[in-house]
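User: Run a structure prediction on this.
Assistant: Running it now.
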Amino acid sequence: MLPSTIIALYWRNRKGQANVAANDKAMWRRVEQLRASGMFGEVIRFGISGVLTTLIYVAVYWPLTRFVFEQRHAVYAVPFAFAVAVTVGFFLHSRWSFKGHATRDADRLRHVKFVAVQASGIALNGLITWIGTAKLGYSPMVPLLPAVACATVFTFFLNRQLVFK
C-alpha cells in the first residue's frame, strides 16, 4: 500500500471516529432531555409495568388457548386475558408509570379515556391474533409477541397523549 493511501485511510478513520463521538454526544443530550422532561422515567416505568401485565396476560391467555378454545379460535381468549391485564395495568399506570400526569381530568373521564385506549389496544391485539391463528394457521403462541408488542407501543402513546397527559 502506498504511504499516501495509508495516511488517507488514517484521516478518514479519525474523521469517522469524530462523527461517532458527535453522534454519541447527541444521543446522550437527547437522553438527558428525556430525563429532564420526565418521559425517560415514564418509558422505563411503563416498560416494567408492561412486562408485569404481559406476564398476567399470558397467564390467562395460554390456558384458555390450550384447554378451552380450539387453536383457530384463540382470538376468543384475547378479551378475557386483556380484561385482567388491563385492570392490573390501570392501577400500575395511574399510580406509578404516569404518576403526576393525570391531574387535569376528573377521575371518571380519565377512566373512560383509559377504557377507550385499551379498547383500541384489544382490537389491534385481536386482529393480529386472528390473522396469525385463523388465517395463517399458527399456534396461538406465535402471534402473541407481535400482538402484545404492537398493542403496547400503540397504547403507550395514546395513554400519554389522551389519558395521563
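The radius of gyration is 22 Å.
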